[in-house]
Amino acid sequence: MKKNISINLQGLIFHIEEDGYEVLGRYLAEVKAHFASFRGHQDIVADIEGRIAEIFSARLSAAKQVITLEDVEAMTAKMGRVSDFASDLDDEDEAETAGAPTGGTFGPDGPFGTKGPFGPQGPFGPKGPFGNQSSNGPFGPNGPFGPGSKTADGAPKRLFRDMAHRKIAGVAAGLAQYFAVNPLWVRLAFVALVLFKPFLRIGHTFDFDNPVNFAGFAVLLYGILWVLLPKNYDAPNPDDIAPGTGPLAGRRLFRDTDTAKIGGVAAGLAYYLKLDVTLVRVLLLAGLFAGGFTLVLYLILWVVAPEAKTVSEKMQMRGEGVTLSGIDNNLRATVLDADGNPVATAPNRPVGAFLEGAARGARPAVSFLGTLIRWGVGALLIFMGGSALASLFVALGVVAGLLPSTSLAGGDGRGIRFDDGGSAQGFAAVLHNVQPWAGVVALLAVGIPMLALVLLGLRLILRRSVLGRMGGLSLLGLWLVGVAGSAVAGGQLAREFRTRGSVTTTRPLAPVPGRSMVLGVRQGDNEDGDEFFESIDVNIAPADSGRAPFIEQEVRARGASAAAARQMATSSVHYSFTQQDSVLTLDRGFTLTNDAPFRNQKVTLTLHLPLDKSYRLTKEFVDRLDDDDFQGNHRPSGDEPHRARLLRNGRFQCLDCAPYSSDDENYDSSADDNDNDGGDDNDDDNSRSSLSLDGAPSFDTDLNSYGSGRRNFSETDFNQVSVVGGYRVVVRHGDAFKIEAGGNQDELNELRVTRDGNTLEIKPRDTSLFGDNGGDDQRKVLIRIEMPAVESLELAGAIQADLGGFDRQDRLRVQQAGVSHLRLNGNYGTLKLSLAGPCRTTATGQADDLALDAAGAAELAGANLRTRTAKVSLVGGCKARLNVSETLRGEAVGGSEVAYSGKPQNVKVSTVGGSSFHKI
Q: Can you give the residue ranges of the Phage shock protein PspC N-terminal domain (predicted)?
């Protein structure tokens, strides 16, 4: 048993054995006596004690907590003794001569010398650290990339997160431990990746087609390593694991303010990289004019690199060993004044001194601003999490029947609506027959992240954790249980929505007296005060001659089986309307019968109305119709009722609307009441069938509606167009080529329009993996293209396009992907449509031959596209509405649906997996 003594070396506490303490005490007494005659000897001794503390810290571990006599002797051997150099002045002179610099740009140790970075023994030479003949280099046998890479205790190297020297999560420090480099360089590498593109503007400078998003890559890599790498709290000091050989051995990066011009960064880099300081300054200046990235690098290094103030720091900066002999030599080499006192040289750096002074003066204001930001972010997180929690508990109260549904009311007081139009009543209906445990796990899965936001906000404000480690782990465990349980409960609920079924009934109307009829929609709740599900589609069709008007009602629902779905559609929905003389008022939605669960019920109403009457359409009724329900594909606007008549093609013709002067002249406007194809053969609007099609929505095609920003492009001689992103595009026939874009100026600046052969390519400059493709700002840009002929149109992303005005073309090929929408009009010989993903196409006009290939929930609303022959192939929940007069060939797979009209004489189709072809 030995007696231990606690000592304090520069703020670090060490436990040292008694015999080691006696040796250390004598050693420090010698050091103090030797340097007592030097000015600032107290700071010199403090530097030496700090270096001793670093050596002792490196020799401690979780299994070794006491400094022994052997550790003290190893330290004295590494640092040296006063007696090693104080006895012989000649030896001192020789040491000074040996320590003189031999560098210079063309010297032996310079960048182009034998031992320089580009010499045979430099970092890129065969004996350098990156050469295969260097045993300790990164790629050598014992380097971090070599086959014998091991730690100091002989164990194989492992990647980990260095929690003892971390700044954020220990990822950079852990990588530095593995590759035996300074963590500063790893951190700078991550910062450089984040800032690389914003300052270099790669996509603009080099015009890459797909520039790499370095920021997204760096953040993703850091996050992956944060999650995957294990923690290590006992890693050695990074400065003690640096390789012992190579041009950077023993060096640390500091700012050398003694020879600085601004901040000392260039001088510090010159010492660290063993280059001429003039060369470094020239390279930094060249980078400033080549894009400005070196300015960012300089500022970052100015902030993160410490200033070399003490003798030991200046020795480490130059790569000299911090020993007593080295310290003594540096002090003796200091310039002395006439009295023999050291002269502190004042570098000529007015710019750097001014900036540093300004930074010191602004530090309190910046600190106060940071505190305000921290409080603001914390308050925002508390508000967001608290509001979400309150909404969650109110919703649970509504579902449980403890609170009225108006507790979730929005601004109109009618309750929160689902995406499909359902109201607050739907909460309880959706969760019908759900087990209580499912509600509990769902509450855990949703509520715990909201609670975590509140706790994070409190932590930012209070600057301490309000929840202990065990509490955090408990919440994490409960959240995982909630997620797993919600997945199980969701699977059980999803089985109830597996299959679709529909039931169609006919509901007669009373004969309408007189020559006019009023059509309206009742607002508010129904007569019993129940709230509506607003999943209602209203279609219009002409009634047969001499037949009273009637309503064809189709109810669709989901169920665990086809029979259950049909039974649900039959028994779960209640829909009503009222008729008083010539006034027909529809309910704006349907209600569920008592104790009926929500199974995605939807109702489609087809109003069969006489042609020999005029109609007064209320604003509420007009809002229920689509653009395609009106002549010219333009629905009337305004709050006043409109007078209209019904045409044979099932469209209303507004009688008191102002003429519509937009681009709708390109759409089919020839179908009116003079259309004499007879009967219902031409009643082929998309809405006539039970097939529910949304079609491609219309949009404003006037450039003046998109703001004052403009760009014009001069590309010509193309007959194909390819568009990527989220823009709105109008393609029209014109005698000459013209391309004009209008809208958000920032998005216009990012717009890239080029010609590749016969193809006009339009896309944003940033189309990388982490870039913003098809954002809301791009929808504020309208691109208008005029061209003599178009043979191909390719749309990808969230494009909204309108193509029309081409009276007669031999062929047109259209390719759509993503969530693109296209409104197509024209007269074509051969029309080929390739649709992939949930894209929509509304086609009008005429095509001799139609070829349609669709996959992945694509839709074609082509009831007003008259085709002679059609060949279709649908896969994966696609829908198509066709108008074919002679030949139809097709196949449908995986729940796809095709409805067609036109009385084709030759029909050959096949279906697989719940798909269908049906004639209207």
A: 157-231, 251-308
Count of residues making up the chain: 920
**Non-local CB neighbours of 838 within 8 Å, separated by 6+ positions:** 818, 819, 856, 857, 858, 859
Phi, psi of 563 (to 5 degrees): -65, -40
310 token code pair? 């003490």
3-state SS record for 773-839? CCCCCHHHEEEEEEECCCCEEEEEECCEEEEEEEEEEEEEEEEEEECCEEEEEEEEEEEEEEEECCC
Looking at the chain, which residues constitute the CATH 2.160.20.120 domain(s)? 703-869
Rounded to the nearest 10°, the torsion over CA 159, 161, 163, 165 is 70
Long-range contacts of 431-434 (CB under 8 A, 24+ apart): 431/399, 432/595, 432/596, 432/597, 432/598, 433/597, 434/489, 434/493
Distance in angstroms (rounded) separating the CA atoms of residues 53 and 28 = 13
List C-alpha distances in Å: 288 to 188, 199, 281, 294: 18, 11, 11, 5
Q: How far apart are CA 661 and CA 656, in angstroms?
A: 15
3-state secondary structure of 157: coil
Q: With a cut of 60, say whether residue 200 has pLDDT above it.
A: no
Query: Does 686 score more than 70 pLDDT?
Result: no
Cα separation, 834 vs 822, whole angstroms:
12
Residue 910 near residue 895 (C-beta atoms within 8 A): no
- Report which secondary-structure segment, H or E, holds 873: strand 859-875
Relative to beta strand 906-912, strand 161-162 is unpaired
List helix spans (H) across 36-160.
Answer: 41-58, 69-79, 83-86, 89-98
**DSSP code string of 12-69:** EEEEEEHHHHHHHHHHHHHHHHHHTTSTTHHHHHHHHHHHHHHHHHHT-BTTB-SB-H
CB 828 within 8 A of CB 811: yes
pLDDT in tens, 547-580: 778 899 998 888 888 888 888 888 888 888 888 8
CB distance 71 to 56 below 8 Å: yes
Pairing verdict, β 4-9 and 12-17: antiparallel
| φ and ψ of 28, to 5 deg | -65, -30
pLDDT at 793: 95
Rounded-to-10 torsion of CA 113, 116, 118, 124: 140
- The pLDDT of residue 127 is 57
Among all chains, which residue has been given the structure tokens 């855990």?
A: 444
Residue at 894: amino acid letter: G
Q: Which CATH class is domain 703-869?
A: mainly beta
DSSP per residue, 568-615:
HHHHSEE--EEEETTEEEEESSBEEPTTPPP---EEEEEEEE-SSSEE
Residue 884 clears pLDDT 50, i.e. is over it: yes
Name residue, tokens 């310290």. Answer: 327
The CA distance from 628 to 625, in Å, is 8
Selection from 247, 410, 322 nearest residue 47 by Cα: 322
Burial class (CB in 10 A: 0-12, 13-18, 19+), 691: buried
Q: What is the mean pLDDT of the chain?
A: 77
CA distances from 541 to 603, 611, 613, 640, 899 (A): 16, 9, 13, 24, 16
Q: Looking at residue 307, what DSSP letter applies?
A: B
Helices 277-289 + 293-304 axis angle, to 10: 130
Residue 852 confidence (pLDDT): 95
The whole model's pTM is what? 0.40
pLDDT greater than 90 at residue 160: no
Q: Which of 54, 55, 100, 95 is nearest to 75 (CA)?
A: 55
HEC string of 693-749 equals CCCCCCCCCCHHHHCCCEEEECCCCCCEEEEEECCEEEEEECCCCEEEEEECHHHHH
Q: Is the pLDDT of residue 324 over 80?
A: no
Q: Which residue has the higher pLDDT, 892 or 612?
A: 892
